[in-house]
Design brief:
CATH superfamily of one domain: Vaccinia Virus protein VP39
CATH architecture of one domain: 3-Layer(aba) Sandwich
Number of helices: 12
Radius of gyration: 20 Å
Shape: globular
Oligomer: single chain
Largest sheet: 7 strands, mixed
Strand content: 15-25%
Order of helices and strands: HHHHHEHEHEEHEHHEHHE
């Protein structure tokens, strides 16, 4: 993070988000400042335009509304609804020895942002898949729908990256068992996930309040349970890393930049329509980061390889 991003107005804006600043008052002050500032081009207008055409199926209940999808991408980048963890992706790519001939399967791909990041930075072939039908439908064909009964989606995968699937009670063992069938010898499976670090907190009012605000109700597992589920798919977990601090820093940094975008959004009707959703999203992420800092939940990376495949 640049030194200039750690001080001055940004620090004040971060405090507004992460130290309990009243969101209604923040909205009022931002609106009042617009009249005294020069016009600033609103970033990524295509996300707003596409958000008006996304059709989500009514048969499957979801809180991923088109406004929520558009608001999230303003913070995290096109195709992403949560932190990408770019520094982790670089480390994972180096460890797996990825290159232009490599093949990567991303499970829990949201709208395909991480897969696009890997393809752009490494040049590898990527296939993005998502178990949530509303997200696959909203991805404009960039993300395939993944079901538990599906066979392997990507033959000869060098890396299978799993994001978020274990957080929502998905049949992780079933999904990994089928998708790892064609993992190449020496290939890696990397699972990035929120975990429950203090099971007593799962019944606390703060945890329940956060869970109810999530677009998909979280069903977090402990690190031990998550590791066992991965091991049950004929994988050997070779490393487990705690990335909670990096995760929280990325969230805070991204939302600090979003404050400027929210102020700019007051200048367009489409932007104004998304401001309430952005403010609600900011409050939701604040609750998540508070639980992480309090030790109620954590963020882990599990790295595994196939037990029945020799390393290259």
């Amino acid at each position: 993070m640049p030194d200039s991003a750690k001080s001055g107005p940004l620090r004040q804006r971060l405090r507004a988000w992460w130290e309990g600043y009243d969101l209604a008052e923040l909205k009022r002050r931002l609106a009042a400042r617009v009249a005294n500032e020069d016009a600033v081009p609103f970033p990524q207008p295509s996300l707003l335009e596409r958000s008006q055409t996304v059709t989500l199926p009514h048969a499957e209940p979801t809180n991923w509304t088109r406004e929520r999808l558009a608001a999230a991408q303003i913070v995290w980048g096109e195709g992403s609804l949560s932190p990408r963890g770019v520094s982790q992706l670089r480390a994972i790519s180096a460890r797996a020895g990825l290159g232009q001939r490599s093949r990567v399967l991303h499970l829990g791909a949201e709208l395909g942002g991480v897969a696009s990041e890997l393809q752009a930075s490494v040049g590898c072939t990527t296939l993005a898949a998502e178990t949530q039908r509303p997200l696959a439908d909203a991805s404009n064909g960039r993300v395939r729908l993944l079901r538990a009964a599906d066979g392997p989606l990507l033959p000869n995968a060098d890396l299978i990256l799993v994001d978020g699937l274990s957080e929502h009670g998905e049949p992780l063992t079933t999904l990994l068992r089928s998708q790892c069938q064609t993992l190449v010898p020496g290939g890696y499976v990397v699972v990035r996930s929120l975990v429950l670090t203090d099971e007593r907190q799962a019944s606390s009012p703060r945890y329940r309040e956060w869970a109810q605000a999530e677009p998909v109700r979280p069903r977090l597992r402990s690190v031990e349970t998550l590791s066992r589920l991965v091991e049950d798919t004929r994988l050997s977990v070779t490393a487990i890393s705690d990335i909670a601090a990096d995760y929280a820093a990325e969230v805070e940094y991204s939302w600090g930049g979003a404050i400027d975008r929210i102020r700019a959004m007051h200048r367009t009707p489409a932007g104004q329509a998304l401001i309430p959703q952005l403010l609600a999203e900011g409050e939701r992420w604040l609750k998540r980061i508070e639980l992480i800092r309090e030790g109620a939940i954590g963020v882990r990376v599990l790295i595994a390889t196939r037990r029945d495949r020799a390393r290259r």
